[in-house]
Write a structure and sequence with these properties.
- This protein has 441 residues and is of the alpha+beta class.
- It has four domains: 104 residues, no CATH class; 140 residues, Helicase, Ruva Protein, domain 3; 89 residues, Lysozyme (Orthogonal Bundle); 59 residues, Orthogonal Bundle (Muramoyl-pentapeptide Carboxypeptidase, domain 1), CATH 1.10.101.
- Helices cover 44% and strands 6% of the residues.
- The chain has 19 helices and seven strands.
- The protein has a five-stranded antiparallel beta sheet with strand order 4-6-7-3-5.
- The chain is globular, with a radius of gyration of 22 Å.
- The two termini are 34 Å apart.
- The structure holds calcium ion (CA).
């Protein structure tokens, strides 16, 4: 993550999740979706180096913003009043409030090294989390029964989100939401967005849904065990235990129902999977990979795509895309509607894959069958920038060489792979950049 970029803010709950101690900023994605603002969960970053290529603000601007902070907050009172927030709540929450300038540092971090998808999945989907998930289901069986009936979202997916966001802990972060969102409401590039989050956080406190002292979370303001942003809370949170409060921090029924409601309202299809691991035939046309190509599963079958293990697809008319998280040498997946819904929760293919796979494992499914190309070293940030510069030198029209791979970069890589007689899977490793260097004209 990153600096603020376009299409950043998912609006559903839970995005921007940071676990304490693992502010894994800019967990760069194998699939190149760098432009999206989300913070990947867990995964301690090794060898993180930061640079200041894209400083959020100059030191002078930061100092000025800090000095003006109290004034900036007070300027928000009329908007707060229009939302019905009491002056008492406003004062209690903002009196003496200082900006959390550490957030501004976090915003600027650009990790040099990113973790390959297989390491990411190893960290998030493992026996301890699977067992903890099964225990959570056993302990809350009646609640899950009721939530499934009410929202049609299965307990395994909900448990996977809960487990990955907070490891079934009480919080997904320990930064006060009011302070974080107030800081970002007055300093930095996304002030308008965060003013809404800040004021909404005050509304939640004013209504008494969640006790103010428990409104803690990621530095971006996501809170509770499944990491609701304040505005996502406002949109999706429900009072499922009937005590009059939507308390997604302390009430497991409210937490699970609110998370389920979020998925339901963003298009969850009851009774369907997220996707399937599949095997591709020899001579498969890899240009068909990627979420932009959608075909009914029976069309994929006609192309020779099969489920691992040979079981039939349960729903052959579902529209699916083919994902190759590690290129042609790694596992392949057909992903359907619910995968895209999980991506609305956190716009990352790796994240959605982790949630889907963990859900399957908690349900009793087996591990991913096909091996990952674990000997492939992913590109560092500087190598990504170098790759984009080398593509531009070869005549490909890209945007800025910023290390963030968008569709243009991916298309250029595939085109070059195809021209060079390689498998055009868009996956690049250190080997690919070595090849580019060697063949530079
Ligand atoms: Ca409640």
């Amino acid at each position: 993550m990153r600096r603020w970029r376009k299409n950043l803010f998912r609006t559903a709950g839970g995005f921007m999740m940071v676990l304490p101690a693992t502010v894994a900023l800019a967990q760069a994605e194998y699939d190149g979706r760098f432009g999206i603002f989300n913070i990947q969960p867990p995964a301690p970053q090794v060898s993180v180096r930061t640079d200041s290529t894209h400083p959020e603000m100059t030191p002078m601007a930061l100092a000025t913003a800090q000095a003006n902070f109290a004034y900036c907050i007070e300027q928000l009172w009329p908007q707060a009043a229009r939302r019905g927030i009491s002056r008492r709540t406003f004062d209690t929450q903002t009196r003496g409030l200082q900006p959390d300038m550490k957030i501004m540092e976090l915003l600027d971090k650009q990790p040099e090294f990113t973790r390959p998808v297989w390491d990411y999945l190893d960290d998030l989907v493992n026996d301890s989390r699977i067992n903890a998930g099964r225990a959570a289901i056993a302990q809350n069986r009646a609640t899950f029964d009721a939530v499934e009936r009410a929202y049609g979202v299965d307990r395994y997916t909900l448990t996977a989100i809960w487990g990955i966001e907070s490891n079934f802990g009480p919080q997904g972060g320990d930064r006060p939401v009011v302070q974080s969102t107030a800081t970002l409401a007055c300093i930095g590039r996304r002030q308008n967005y965060f003013r809404d989050e800040f004021l909404t956080a005050l509304e939640i406190i004013d209504r008494g849904d969640v006790p103010a002292e428990l409104m803690k979370g990621s530095w971006a303001g996501a809170f509770g065990p499944t990491q609701f942003m304040p505005t996502a809370f406002k949109r999706y949170a429900v009072d499922f235990d009937g005590d009059g409060k939507k308390n997604v921090v302390q009430s497991i029924p409210d937490l699970l129902a609110s998370t389920a409601n979020n998925l339901k309202k963003t298009g969850w299809q009851s009774g369907a999977s997220w996707g399937y691991e599949v095997v591709l035939p020899a001579n498969f046309n890899y240009m068909l990979a990627g979420r932009s190509t959608k075909k009914p599963i029976h069309s994929w079958e006609a192309l020779g795509v099969r489920r691992v293990g040979g079981q039939p697809f349960p729903r052959r008319d579902d529209v699916a895309s083919l994902l190759l998280p590690a290129g042609a040498k790694g596992p392949a997946f057909l992903v359907i509607n619910n995968f895209r819904v999980i991506m609305k929760y956190n716009p990352s293919e790796s994240y959605a894959l982790a949630i889907g796979h963990l859900a399957d494992r908690i349900r009793g499914g087996g591990p991913i069958v096909q091996p990952w190309p674990r000997d492939e070293a992913p590109l560092s940030r500087s190598e990504r920038i170098e790759l984009q510069q080398r593509l531009a030198a070869r005549g490909y029209v890209l945007g800025d060489a910023d290390g963030h791979f968008g569709p243009k970069t991916r298309d250029a890589i595939r085109d070059l792979q195809a021209r060079a007689g390689m498998v055009p899977d868009g996956f690049v490793s250190v080997k690919f950049i070595d090849w580019l260097r060697r063949t530079e004209r």
